[in-house]
Amino acid sequence: MNIHEITNPDFLEDMNTEQLEKLSADIRAFLIESCSKTGGHIGANLGVVELTIALHKHFNSPEDKILFDVGHQAYIHKILTGRINEFDTLRQYKGLCGFPKMRESEHDVWEAGHSSTSLSAAMGMALARDIKKEDHYVVPIIGDGALTGGMALEALNNIGSERTPMIIILNDNEMSIAPNVGAMHNMLGRIRSNVSYNRAKYDFEEMIENVPQVGAKLRDIVDRVKDSFKYLFVEGVFFEELGIKYLGPVDGHDYEELDTALKNAKDFKGPVLVHVVTKKGKGYTHAETDEIGTWHGLGPYKIETGEVLGGKSTVSWSEFVSNTVLSHAHEDERIVAVTPAMPVGSKLTNFARTYPERFFDVGIAEQHAITMSAGLAAAGMKPYLAIYSTFLQRGYDQLLHDVDRQNLNVFIGIDRSGLVGADGETHQGIFDISFITPLPNMVLMMPKDEREASQMIELAFNHDGPIALRYPRGNVNGIDDEVTYPPLELGKWENISEGDALTIVSFGPTLELVQDVADAFKKENININVVNARFIKPIDESMLHELGQKNQPILVVEESMLEGGLGSMIGSFMLDNNYKNSIERIGIGNEYIEHGNVNELLDDIGISFDNIYAKAKEMVNQDNEEN
Ligand SMILES: Cc1ncc(C[n+]2csc(CCOP(=O)(O)OP(=O)(O)O)c2C)c(N)n1
Ligand SMILES: CC(=O)[C@@H](O)[C@H](O)COP(=O)(O)O
Ligand SMILES: [Mg+2]
What we know:
The chain is α/β, with parallel strands linked by helices. The relative contact order is 0.08.
């Protein structure tokens, strides 16, 4: 079988174990090679090669619904459903998406990018199937990391009580991005190490199944004996107690074991969970031996050495912010750091090593992370919560009800603010401004560079009330260490360059682009006033009054949603104060932004030199005509 000729998974039905193993090896080799050029979630995918093949062999997709939680581990699924020849475009502009995408294939029945949604979605699909009297399987695949997410636990609670038939595949590789954490993880560990109990239970059940005409009485006795097995050997069979039949643990790299388990699962009428044990990064030494989380997902790499290509000369924003927080933590014992499962991405590993007792990785649990931070603050600590903009969306009510309403001293580092690039639609950090600014107590800042970020971090740890610092994916500018800025005052914007032809207001990395535009105008003897709106909330009302009184045209450029963005706040302010300035905005319209290189995406949106220049020119000319 030439894997480049695969159009759909039907061919798997007739394959024997030897052929399946050969296919697995071919797919692994292909993934290692292909991701070395494009980057991607290589570690997660190498771990599920056999599992995905086995699922497509045993289930009839798309009639049977196979749903991937998070969706970062669906590459093999994409290959088996006819997309292998698009892998050279993986996660690139207009290319193959790194997550399931309905418009790519009828086999992608659920889209995700954020974790822990698959069980709720599967329950919805299974309920619909039953109401419509259809007959097919619903098969969500969820990782041990995603299982710690609140939604997954809410779904299990519901699935177990409703006894909704579905086959849950728990892919347990003991890793989230970083090594998995938490009591659920510990429980899975105990189950894994109690293989003898599970074997005994499994053999016993199989033996009973094979006795013809097992009467109800015998079944009763059997169930009781099974229960005593359970209590004798295992500290708590969580899933069975919830009403979900547990099968496993199964070696997820062994076709015979997968075969038996999936056949058994298909025979069961209620909800069943197959506990599949896999090795993340399987088959590629660098990824397989990774104990940190580097190989979960990454950019292009050198296959032989595992060297990650495209290194930068400056540190990442995450690293800069985390290290600055750490330096404050040396001085103030009340400072603690919290992350919902992103110690690697948010670069908190240094903090964790230095102050393990003041560092908390709570697993994929954004809501809990936010309210726990609120609790820490209520008890007099100074929590620093690092959270990606996109994942902060999960904890909105916690941010509003627990942090902001109680005006607690929680300092939030909003990592990956703005466009993130290759992860695309599900991960762009472009909504936080719109949903944070209505919160009455919140302060929201974004620095123009790392020196200003240092000032903001200092301010945050001395501020009374909730405060957040946005910072982008990518690396800091690398400005001169000697540069010092005047003291930062809460809510005060900065004039970067003076001029009265037009005011352009922006914040964060976009300011550099705006400054380039102003420099170009300067060469034409047109002076533009560039404003660094480093406080997105509160806005600088006194500067806006000045601009209002001058009636100067204002152009707002923001790498964020226009709805509820800085431009709309400025517009409201001017309206409320009866100023008549002409105001234009460049930013993200009411749409989702797909994957691609950030610069390509910015160009597409119109946050580009050419577009800002053209809009500015138009406004200057119009203003000249009117005056
Ligand atoms: C709500 C949410 N929080 C955090 C993440 C970031 N994230 C993506 S994958 C992942 C680890 C998932 O672990 P697991 O489910 O065990 O899958 P594995 O990669 O081990 O196969 C995390 C934390 C996310 N995608 N969604
Ligand atoms: C799938 C997922 O949510 C993460 O793996 C994410 O892709 C990490 O993004 P960064 O590479 O920006 O840390
Ligand atoms: Mg895992």
